[in-house]
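Tutorial handout. Part one gives the primary structure; part two gives the three-dimensional structure as tokens.
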Amino acid sequence: MRVATVSIASALAFELVSAIPAPSPFRWPGNPNNQKTLNVQLGPRPYYLVNNMDPGPLKDKLASCSEGPFRTTDFSISHRGAPLQFPEHTTESLLAGVRMGAGVMECDVAFTKDKQLVCRHSHCDLHMTTNILTKPDLAAKCTKPFTPADPAKGTPASASCCTSDITLAEFKTLCGKMEANDLTATNVTQFLRGTPPFRTDLYSTCGTLMTHKEFISIVDGLGLGLKFTPELKTPTVKMPFQGTYTQQQFAQQLVDEYKAAGIDPRRVYAQSFLIDDIFYWISKEPAFGQQAMFLDERVDTAAGYTNATASIPELARRGLRIIAPPMFALTTVDAQKRIVPSEYAIAAKKAGLEIITWTIERSGLLRTGGGYYYDYVKEVINNDGDMYTMLDVLAKQVGIKAIFSDWPATVTYYANCMGLC
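Part two.
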């Protein structure tokens, strides 16, 4: 794809947070402390993407940065670790994201039956992201046990296993796997397959699951001063859970675990899809609330996009500082077939909001338009290198603060090349 870019008068907002206490000395697991700094390693993928780009100034600029050096950048947010290749929300995935230079690490926060916080993308995804169905004693506790596909009736295989179905001790016996299932399965072994072809099961051996407290300890213990972005996952069980555990208690418990660990609030970007969670933090925990991030999925429909755009000034008036829509909502294509900022992006900037967006490296091959995350620009997306064209518009024209990535190396490479570190 040959896409021109158009600059608008919007400054990049990549200032560093000042006066945050210096981190403790760098410590990598197993490192005998003779290394003083992290050796950021990006692997071959960024180079593949650059080589795949159409000729032009952006490709030339990115190619000129091939030999680094590369360092950690807050512009690169590790989305669930590095789930393009590693089982999400596992220690292995988390450390892969750190190694690839992500400066902000994510834990999606769900709760167990005994109301302990754990890292899972959904309260009810254990049947897709762990081996719970292979453990009869735990599989029997699932909200919806495994049911095989019935080709004669045309019904798919199904199951639903939630963190709230089991205790923390039981959760810690599970192994993480790549997020996938096979809806044509007639047995559990088949059901646990289905990893998309653009991903891999190479590292899907037995990923180490984490509690939220363990996540905090691992990230802080590296001594790199990395930042945290925990997402308060919208519960799929009825709240109050067990009749007493409220949504507000859930939101408070998340913050309390950072306070108990002595984490400076300026290192924490709490997220939620529920605006009431954001306003709770702004009101009850302002030191954390001022960096709370509203994940705006209202844009998923045309009417929702219009309403979301119109609501931005009011959200800002009520204290929201960071808005985070999916990246398709921030761009559109103009009459000259150029990727440009959308009405939503312009409205967010006009309201003085910082913008963080999601998720790059989650779409697979881009030769057919890129799907959901490229929805409003899909007509000009036709190769994997277009990922960097999109990212360049988001960074330079939209002025995003940061972006989530399923493979942080891709964003780390761009950010280092463009001086966003």
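Part three, for discussion. Residues 8 and 397 are 6 Å apart (CA to CA). The first strand starts at residue 73 and ends at 78.
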